[in-house]
């Protein structure tokens, strides 16, 4: 199976005619080829986008909205094919791709199809000096969108939809590790009648075609989701060119559990926030802090639940954890687990690769729980981005706030308590872009999404995304 770039409305081979291997992580085998694109392909994509911009940016909001809604509908019509492709490419359970990834990719388009019809700007009148100021919100031009492998179509469309809705043309690059659904999206866009050149999807390596997007002199903004190190590199390249930057980066999110919480709900949700998508969600709660008085109870109840999780064939309905995304990632996760144990962590469950019947070469790993006594250990400081959580007890609110905030990251935090005063106090003090209280991954697309500190710069979602993808221009009239 060979996929192609989507440039100027057509599916085309890379100019070099060179291709990369694409792996099926549950089988541990190459199953397809993807374009190994270079600067020239990015230039072609840019030229197509630049040519499409005058018409697209001046088209009516209703027209853009209608096309985006058509794409959303086609994603739902093709849900089965897309979910299967996502599961095959990424290793995630098909059930998860069908229930979450693909429906959410469709919602991203339908949400911004509607949001753009409600987008407005400010005006300021000063009757004393007879002026009216109003703000134009104009599209930026050609923008770049770069996404990671963990929620491939979901995160790719989360950037593309607001960029297109607000009148920009896009050069986009999905992760080379999970390119398949982005290719299927290209086919959907053709079918939906998206004018040629408005969206261009180029496949290839980050250091080659990703970097070519970031360093392109005329690409006006970069919306990036991925690792903190890559984000740093992108910022270094793009900031001196004065590009607008939205960086959604890594996390080391605390999951804080007080004894006064709704225990059963907390236990169920904590299982998910630890291991959903094999723990490969930037919002997973990888550091679990439990109040001393319920620590031992939580430990035994949680392990009992973790033991029941099934690691297996992603296509089977009762599979809880599929394969990790790549062999390199599997090794990285395993190295972190060994290091945690070397540093004095106590392995409570997991810590081993799993050989799944019929998938002997697949990249499967046990859900893993490690008890730690210090927040300074590597496991509590660095992002593993796999099915590994740490457990640690705390004795007071002040102590746990300090622990929660003591990493370089600041993406999200979960808090389990029935005390409303404490919820408010802690929400104010937690250094995170998102705080969930008595819930996790509960997303309303209208809300700002993003992190602080090394978890990123800027916010996605709702009006924040539409503001990011537009340039405010103030016009002052004196009458
Ligand atoms: P990554 O940084 O390796 O790659 C992300 C994307 O950037 C890929 O498309 C890659 O090809 C591209 N890229 C790599 N080097 C580049 C360069 N020099 N210039 C331009 N593009 C380049 O990340 P990943 O391994 O794909 O994803 C995992 C990371 O993403 C984790 O750290 C995770 O926390 C983070 N993530 C963050 C969020 C969030 O919303 N904050 C969401 C999902 C994932």
From TrEMBL:
The keyword Disulfide bond appears for this protein: no
InterPro entries in alphabetical order: Ald_DH/histidinol_DH, Ald_DH_C, Ald_DH_CS_CYS, Ald_DH_CS_GLU, Ald_DH_N, Aldehyde_DH_dom
Membrane as UniProt keyword: no
Gene3D superfamilies, A to Z: Aldehyde Dehydrogenase, Chain A, domain 1, Aldehyde Dehydrogenase, Chain A, domain 2
Domain called Aldehyde dehydrogenase: residue spans: 15-475
Database matches in CDD domains: ALDH_F8_HMSADH
This protein's name: Aldehyde dehydrogenase
Similarity section: Belongs to the aldehyde dehydrogenase family.
Gene Ontology molecular function, alphabetical: aldehyde dehydrogenase [NAD(P)+] activity
Highest taxon of source: Bacteria
Alphabetical UniProt keywords: NAD, Oxidoreductase
